[in-house]
C-alpha cells in the first residue's frame, strides 16, 4: 500500500488529479515503445459545460445517517447476505417520467432477489469495445476476488478498496497479486495487465471475513491501481474524468461491471439515477443510487453524461442493498479531495 508521500513521490498525485477534471488532451497517449509522459500539472477549473454540476452547493441531506450498520460487500461469489437498512429508511422515490426504467426487463433467476438487483433484473449486456464501456475493466486477485475498475488516468484505475483485501488475513493484497483485465468477453479472457503499485484511501480497514469495520469511514472504500508503466498508456479518450463536486439527486446514471452471475461479459443498468446523499460522520457523505448491480460490480463507476456526450465518474460502487435494487457508492468528490491533498 502506498502512503500519500509515496503517491506524491511516484508522480501519481499530479497525474491522477489531472485525469480527474478533464481527460488528457489529444495526443497525450504514449505510443508502443515510447517513454511514459512526465507527471501532468493539476488542471484548470472544470469547463463551463459542467459548472452547474460541480457548483459547491451541498444537497439537502437526511438529519441522521441512514447507512446500514456493518453491511457486507458482494465482490466475492457466492454473495453473502447483506444487513438490511435500519427501519425507517425511505425507499427510493419514483423517477420522473423521462427516467422510468425500460419496460423490457428480465426476471431475476433466483427466487430470492440478489443484493442490489431486486426482483427484476434491469441489467443488459453492453459492448466493452465502445465508449464508455471500453474504459471499464475487471479487477482480479489471486485469492479469487473479482471486481470492476475504471481508467481515470493513462495508467491509473479506480476501484473499491475492499476488492483488494486478502480474504484470509484481511490485509491488503500485494500489487503482484492483483491484475487488471482489459476487454474480457464470453468468448475470451481479455488482456491481463500487471499492477505496479496500489494506493488505498486513508482510513480504510476491515474485519475478518473480510467484512466492513464499523469504525472505518465508509467513504474510504476506494483505491487506485497504478498499472505497469511498461504497458502503453491508455488513449486519451479512454480516460474517464472524476467529478470534483456533488451531482444533484435525479442526475441520470449508467452503472456497469463484470458480475459473475451473468458470465464473463460486461453488463450494465442503463436507466438509473442518484437518489440522495447521506452523512456518514463529520464531513463524510455516501451516495445512494438506484442502479442495479451485484457481486462483481464493486469498484465499477457510476457514470453521468456531460452535455457534449462524454462521460464522467460521479462515484464508485461500494455496497449493494439486500433484497432490493440499488446501493451505496463513494462520491467522486471524496476521491477528488484526497487526490488534491496528495498532489500538494
How many strand segments?
17
CATH architecture of the largest domain: Beta Barrel
Number of domains: 2
Helix content: under 10%
Task: Please tell me the overall pLDDT.
Answer: 74
Beta-strand content estimate: 25-35%
3D architecture notes:
α2 (12-21) crosses α3 (332-343). 8% of the residues lie in helices and 26% in strands. It has helices spanning 4-9, 12-21, 332-343; strands spanning 106-107, 120-121, 124-125, 136-141, 146-151, 156-159, 178-182, 191-200, 206-207, 211-212, 223-227, 252-257, 267-279, 285-289, 301-305, 311-320, 327-331. The strands form 4 sheets. It has a 6-stranded antiparallel beta barrel. It folds into 2 domains: 4-24 and 134-238, Thrombin, subunit H (Beta Barrel), CATH 2.40.10; 101-127 and 241-331, Thrombin, subunit H (Beta Barrel). It has 344 residues and is mainly beta. It contains 3 helices and 17 strands.
Amino acid at each position: 500500500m502506498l502512503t500519500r508521500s509515496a503517491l506524491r513521490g511516484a508522480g501519481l498525485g499530479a497525474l491522477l488529479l489531472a485525469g480527474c477534471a478533464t481527460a488528457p488532451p489529444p495526443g497525450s497517449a504514449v505510443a508502443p515503445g515510447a517513454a511514459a509522459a512526465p507527471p501532468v500539472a493539476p488542471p484548470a477549473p472544470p469547463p463551463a459545460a459542467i459548472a452547474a454540476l460541480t457548483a459547491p452547493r451541498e444537497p439537502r441531506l437526511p438529519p441522521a445517517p441512514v447507512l446500514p450498520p456493518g453491511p457486507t460487500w458482494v465482490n466475492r461469489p457466492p454473495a453473502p447476505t447483506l444487513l438490511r437498512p435500519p427501519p425507517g429508511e425511505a425507499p427510493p422515490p419514483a423517477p420522473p417520467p423521462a427516467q422510468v426504467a425500460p419496460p423490457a426487463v428480465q426476471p431475476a433467476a433466483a427466487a430470492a432477489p440478489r443484493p442490489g438487483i431486486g426482483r427484476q433484473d434491469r441489467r443488459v449486456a453492453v459492448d466493452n469495445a465502445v465508449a464508455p464501456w471500453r474504459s471499464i475493466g475487471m479487477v482480479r486477485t489471486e485469492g479469487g476476488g473479482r471486481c470492476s475498475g475504471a481508467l481515470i488516468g493513462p495508467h491509473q484505475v479506480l476501484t473499491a478498496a475492499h476488492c483488494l483485501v486478502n480474504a484470509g488475513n484481511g490485509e491488503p493484497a500485494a500489487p503482484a497479486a492483483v491484475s487488471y483485465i482489459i476487454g474480457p468477453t464470453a468468448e475470451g479472457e481479455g488482456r491481463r495487465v500487471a499492477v505496479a503499485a496500489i494506493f488505498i484511501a486513508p482510513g480504510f480497514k476491515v474485519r475478518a471475513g473480510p467484512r466492513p469495520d464499523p469504525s472505518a469511514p465508509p467513504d474510504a472504500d476506494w483505491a487506485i491501481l497504478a498499472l505497469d508503466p511498461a504497458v502503453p498508456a491508455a488513449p486519451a479518450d479512454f480516460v474517464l474524468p472524476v467529478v470534483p463536486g456533488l451531482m444533484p439527486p435525479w442526475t441520470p446514471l449508467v452503472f456497469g461491471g463484470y458480475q459473475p452471475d451473468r458470465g464473463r461479459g460486461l453488463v450494465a443498468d442503463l436507466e438509473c439515477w442518484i437518489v440522495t446523499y447521506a452523512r456518514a460522520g463529520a464531513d463524510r457523505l455516501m451516495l445512494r443510487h438506484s442502479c442495479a448491480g451485484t457481486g462483481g460490480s464493486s469498484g465499477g463507476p457510476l457514470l453521468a453524461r456531460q452535455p457534449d456526450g462524454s462521460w464522467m465518474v460521479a462515484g464508485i460502487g461500494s455496497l449493494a442493498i439486500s433484497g432490493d435494487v440499488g446501493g451505496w457508492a463513494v462520491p467522486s468528490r471524496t476521491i477528488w479531495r484526497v487526490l488534491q491533498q496528495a498532489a500538494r
